[in-house]
Amino acid sequence: MADDSRLLMLIDREPAQSRLITAVALREGWRTLVVRDAEAALTALKSAEGKAVTAIILDQAAIGDQACSLIGALKDKRPDAPVLMLTGSASPLLAVEAMRAGANDYLIKPVAPERLMQSLRAATQVEAPRKELQPLAEKMQGTLDFDSMIGTSPPFRSALAQAAKTARGNGSVLIEGESGTGKEMLLRAMHGASARAKAPLRIVNIGSASASAIESLLFGHEPDAFPGAFDRQVGAIQHADGGTVVLDDIDRLEPATQEALATMIESGIVRPVGASHGFRVDVRFMATSNLPLADMVSEGHFRRDLFEAMSGTRIELPPLRERAGDIPALTRHFLARIGEQPGLRHLSISDSALSLLAAFDWPGNVRQLQAVLFRAAVFCDAQTLTPESFPDLHAILGDREDGAGAPSQDGMGVMLYQPDGNLRPLEEIEADVIRLAIGHYRGRMTEVARRLGIGRSTLYRKLSDLGIDNAA
């Protein structure tokens, strides 16, 4: 039952989407007030009912180019009401403009209902808002290959090695791990490295559509197969003939669809809903799951035959809290990509800020780290991100000057910046690089010299000049 004290304003012109969001919001205890355009939204806020609005969802398609102006106007009239913006555009510049106008989150359609509600919950928490820690859904486009998967921790590198080896085959792949660990990105990289790289890739997000629509999305349907099926629709599996189908969040697949999919995989024939005929297809299946599917099978929540069909290779991606040593490299990688986006610029980051990032446990994993850095870059006026660039994290964790969570040479790499944001002297950086290499290669000086690209005699001379004990 909806809570009368929680009223959501939805600015949307798409009836189907409005009904879906209204229904999902109702399950979360929200009443919904739907308006079609900017004028209606601003007028509604002045009404008796509109004064009770506590959150706003805005679909850019209903407003067009004036969406950011409307966000500003909405925040002027209701500064405490969070605004979530839905858009079909992946433009980073639009994300920057929306956030600077006051948007709390930026979500690219199609967005899974749970992702939308997660964002709404985060934006309307009773306690002090943590805007920078919200699940920003903005995605920066980039190369999707194994080189773009950043990390050196053994579990992560093991997962990448297994993925790279498996990519060349044709068997099914199941990647398990918490939300935000990069499962879909890894599957895209595997497709790009496979023999099917030039063939179609279809990604079906199980959580982004109603249970009744998923079967049609996968298998297609014939006209009049069910109420509202006016035209024939070709499903994702048939579209991907010769290529790859990725089932994102397969753990959310309904039992009836699990059975139909298991039958299809066993026979190799896809049969559209309402059809008396089928089509033989050659498709490689890949899937992601936030939950361990083997446990779901044991508990009776997932079909064993489908699990076996989908798990030719099982890969587990570790959460970011279990590879905190990768945070500096990930941070610099994201900052480099963020700096290439329209409306933004290249920024450095201080050691103290890196220490702060390393001390957080990142429940939203790599996706959340990217979102936090994106927000910080949007609002940074200086050239360097400092702890003050992350006020929510700073408030949660406090100052890290006591060394708690401080970056170690082993896990965190070489620090380039002083706490004030200025670069460290080159001599200090060089000494740290050599110490790091000696430790990494366990004192094997020939290997250290080879990896550093210098001769042994040059290495020993540098050890002497820099005052480094070669047992460091």
Short account of what is shown:
With 472 residues, the chain is α/β, with parallel strands linked by helices. It contains 21 helices and 16 strands.
Observed structural traits:
472 residues, Rossmann fold, Helicase, Ruva Protein, domain 3, five-stranded parallel β-sheet, flat, transcription, transcription regulation, repressor, CheY-like_superfamily, nucleotide-binding
Structure description:
The protein has 472 residues and is an alpha/beta fold. Helix content is 43%, strand content 13%. It contains 21 helices and 16 strands. It has a five-stranded parallel beta sheet with strand order 2-1-3-4-5, sandwiched between helices. Strands 7-10-13-6-14 form a five-stranded parallel beta sheet, sandwiched between helices. Strands 8-9 form a two-stranded antiparallel sheet. α2 runs parallel beside α4, α4 runs parallel beside α5 and α14 packs across α16.
SSE inventory with pairings:
Blueprint: E1 7-11, H1 15-27, E2 31-35, H2 38-46, E3 53-59, H3 60-63, H4 67-77, E4 83-87, H5 92-101, E5 105-108, H6 113-123, H7 154-167, E6 173-176, H8 183-192, E7 201-205, H9 211-219, E8 220-221, E9 233-234, H10 236-239, E10 244-248, H11 255-267, E11 269-270, E12 279-280, E13 284-289, H12 293-298, H13 304-310, E14 313-316, H14 327-339, E15 348-349, H15 351-359, H16 365-379, E16 384-385, H17 391-397, H18 409-412, H19 426-440, H20 445-452, H21 456-466
Parallel strand pairs: 1-2, 1-3, 3-4, 4-5, 6-13, 6-14, 7-10, 10-13, 15-16
Antiparallel strand pairs: 8-9, 11-12
Helix pairs in contact: 2-4, 4-5, 7-8, 14-16
